[in-house]
Amino acid sequence: MKLEGYEIIREISRGPIATVYLGRQTVLDRPVFLKVLNENIHDHPDLLERFKREARICARLNHPNIVNIYDFGDAEGSFYLIFEFVKGRPLNEVIKKLHPLPLPVIYFILYEVAKGLHFAHQNGVLHRDIKPANIMIGDDGSVKITDFGLATSADLPNLTLQHAAVGTPAYMSPEQSTGKKLDPKSDIFSLGVTIYETATAHNPFLGQNIVDTLNNVLTKKPEPLKNLRQDCPLWFDQLVNSMLEKKAERRLSSLQTMLNHAQLKREVIDQEQFLSFLKNPESFKKSGSAEKKPVLQKSIKKTIPLILGAVFLSALLLFFLNYFRTSENRTPSQSNAVIVADSAQSPFVPDSKKVKEEWRAAAAADSIKNHLPERRVVQPPAKKEPQAVKELPEATTGRLMIFCTPWAQVFIDDRLVDTTPLNKPIELETGEYTLALKNPNYQSLVQKIRISPGQEDTLIFRLKPKVGILQISAFPWGKVFIDDSLKGITPLQIRIPAGRYRLTIKNPNFKIYTDTITVKSGEKIEKRIQLKK
């Protein structure tokens, strides 16, 4: 495929609906992402509408934490989107490679995603598919939300998809999984699941199959983060829990509330520190994560008046001591206040004048000491040994869950592997396959699929029935009904899906004619009927 003004460099990923390419915008000489609708999807108007919806929604969301869309159109019969190029990798890959992520890093990712998602909510847009795979971590330290293909907008028509799950089950909110009306709190739940997974490297609701997963979303209470990570503070555990409340009315009220969270704002690092983690994770962890922001300024301001007051009292005390003193010739033995650090090593006795001066100095020091707050020696916290990055084994397989109406035999590369409804996902080695769904009374569906390592994809299909031809002649004439649905007046020839039907012919001056017919795919049935009085 050729696009005017763009050069396609290479394919990045291929899914059941669209293929993503790395490209270059020739006029501006900048890299871009090209998302092209697969050819086998062109005759599905619902998916085409979803593609156009993504373009319209993304075009209105110009924010640093949302991937921008540059262009949209069709070329050579193929529909495409041109996206901002983000050099980096999705969050799910970052989690796999660098788990466990330091908490300051998790705070930063949460804060950045919340800013972008809150902006979308302010513009009347719900994402509906927030998950690690839809969050890009740029090599420059940027964090951007991608894939608004399932998003909804208040001023765009509703869209019901027949060929793709509306959201990813393990990240859906309870209200989304049961088909209820959604609001921004649904995205907040999905973000909570995403951050939980970012902190623990596992999704708390993922089950053996989609039924288990949806049941977990509705009923399972995740293990508290503080029980899974010893370094997790109570405030963060409570924040994530508030995002994962089953009932929307009890959930975190809005992402603005999160962005105003005092502890989160105090603990979150900046993009430069996040970038240093991406460049050298081990060094970042060994350095104790991020330096804390200075918090001593207020305490110093409070302490200065105390010190000044103590100095004033000391000066006043010295004045009275000098006033009431009558003897200038006290010996050292008369003053217990004099402490000479090396007196045991000194062979001489100091003169009385020098002792007096030392006494005054000691008295002043004691006075200041008595009026200053008690000095506490704070021992530095014991340096924790940095947790070693757990090297997770590279996944070599992925899973595929298929839902099909009606039932169908599932073929992978011409090999029968199962029949829907599936009891569990199909596990396959990573790579590209040809998927075929077959039912003798319906048109077979064939398409390319790509299995990604460690991921589970869910596909939902509705097969089109095969058709036959029904030709009917009735004398003198009659209205033709198929399963009580009027199809026309004889003579009549119609295309009809394969299957069994009740045929009825009516003429007000004759008896009603009824029969049962079986239509086979690709075959023609001819019926000549003489109506009776």
UniProtKB/TrEMBL annotation:
Instruction: Pinpoint the Protein kinase domain residues.
Output: 6-264
Mind telling me which residue stretches traverse the membrane in this protein?
Answer: 303-324
Keyword ATP-binding attached = yes
Q: Which UniProt keywords apply?
A: ATP-binding, Kinase, Membrane, Nucleotide-binding, Serine/threonine-protein kinase, Transferase, Transmembrane, Transmembrane helix
Lineage, top-rank taxon, reads Bacteria
**Which InterPro entries does this one have?**
Kinase-like_dom_sf, PEGA, Prot_kinase_dom, Ser/Thr_kinase_AS
GO MF term list: ATP binding; protein serine/threonine kinase activity
Which Gene3D superfamilies does UniProt cross-reference here? Phosphorylase Kinase, domain 1, Transferase(Phosphotransferase) domain 1
Which protein, by its recorded name, is this? Serine/threonine protein kinase
